[in-house]
Specification:
Elements (H helix, E strand, L loop, with lengths): L1 E6 L2 E5 L4 E4 L15 E5 L10 H8 L5 E6 L13 E4 L4 E3 L5 E6 L5 E7 L2 E5 L13 H22 L6 E5 L10 H9 L5 E4 L6 H9 L14
């Protein structure tokens, strides 16, 4: 499995079977094998996670087999007209076009998070599933947020049942200030995965360096996606 960071929360994964392009809205997509299927997955409709132009970009690259896996909140006018499109909701299992399996989790913001099994490979993309604690929110609202986030991560742990993810893409957002690491820490403490890619850091990759400085025990698990 090969992983390429695109931009913000967008990553490209290549397996033997196909390509997976997660949450694309901007950035350069590397050269691809045009005969290999590509699945475009969008966790929700926010502009920094999905732009319909991705399908035109892939067609211009000569990709012959394009599929869309879109969160159901993405409106009909933003969906591709000439690409097979699967709409997904949270908390459900799906079979993907090449026989892979998908399990969705409920985001703490909008849409879904993805857990995909492709043969022996298993990977997770959080979308906007995160412990969104903010200083301007009430203590009660923040407590409820943490409960909702941990419920979903605990469901992920139950689904894995001790198996290790091959890759995980998890929010690390500097806008949360002193609480920036809450979601990432809970994930690392409860989910077995040796390749965790921080995302959604708004072109501030130094937040990854800060995390590793404050939590050096995770140096071997966190993967840098951009030079700092």
């Amino acid at each position: 499995m090969n992983v390429t960071y695109i931009h913000h929360s967008s990553f490209l994964i290549e397996t033997e079977r196909c390509y997976y392009l997660f949450d694309y809205f901007r950035g350069s997509i590397p050269a691809l094998n045009p005969s290999k299927p590509v699945l475009v997955l969008a966790s929700h409709k926010h502009h920094d996670h999905y732009q319909k132009i991705v399908f035109s970009i892939l067609k211009d690259m000569g990709m012959q087999h394009i599929y869309a896996v879109l969160s159901r909140d993405i409106p009909s006018g933003a969906r591709p007209e000439d690409v097979p499109c699967m709409l997904v909701s949270s908390g459900k299992y799906y079979e993907l076009p090449q026989g892979q399996t998908l399990l969705t989790f409920r985001s703490t913001d909008l849409g879904v998070a993805f857990l995909i099994r492709d043969g022996k490979e298993l990977f997770y993309h959080a979308g906007d599933l995160n412990d969104w604690v903010w200083t301007e929110e009430s203590a009660d609202d923040n407590r409820q947020m943490t409960v909702k986030y941990r419920e979903q991560i605990d469901l992920l742990a139950q689904e894995l049942d001790g198996r290790t993810l091959d890759a995980a893409f998890v929010v690390l957002d500097p806008r949360q200030e002193q609480d920036y690491d809450r979601g990432m820490l809970y994930f690392l403490q409860h989910i077995p995965c040796d390749c965790v890619y921080p995302m959604h850091y708004w072109e501030q990759p130094e937040i990854i360096t800060r995390f590793l400085r404050e939590h050096p025990q995770y140096q071997n698990r966190i993967k840098l996606t951009q030079p700092v």
